[in-house]
Amino acid sequence: MITDININLSQWPFRRLPLDETPELVEKLHRNGITQAWAGSFDGVLHRDVAGVNSRLANECGLHGEGILIPSGSVNPMLPDWQDDVRRCHEQHGMRSIRINPNYHGYKLNDPICDELFQQVVTHKLIVQLVLKMEDVRTHFPLMMVPTVDMTPLSDLIQRHPDVRLILMNNYNTLRGETLSKAAQAENVYFDISHAEQVGALEKITKSVPYEKLLFGSHAPFFYLEAALLKFKESELGETITRAIQFKNAERLLNEP
Amino acid sequence: MIWDLHGHFSGVDGATVDERIARLMEYADRMGVERQVFFMGWPWSRDPTPEEFRKQNDQVLQAISHWHDRAFGFAYLNGRYPKESLAELERCVADGPMVGVKLWVSFKCSDRKIDPIIVRCGELKAAIYQHTWLKVQGNSPGESTPTDLAILARRHRSVPIICGHTGGDWTRGIRAVRAEKNVSIGIGGSEPTAGFVEMAVRELGADRVIYGSDIGGRSYASQLAKVQGADIPAADREQILGLNLKRMLTPILNAKGMKR
Question: Which residues of chain B make contact with A224, given a CB cutoff of 8 A?
Answer without folding.
Answer: 192-194, 225-226, 228-230
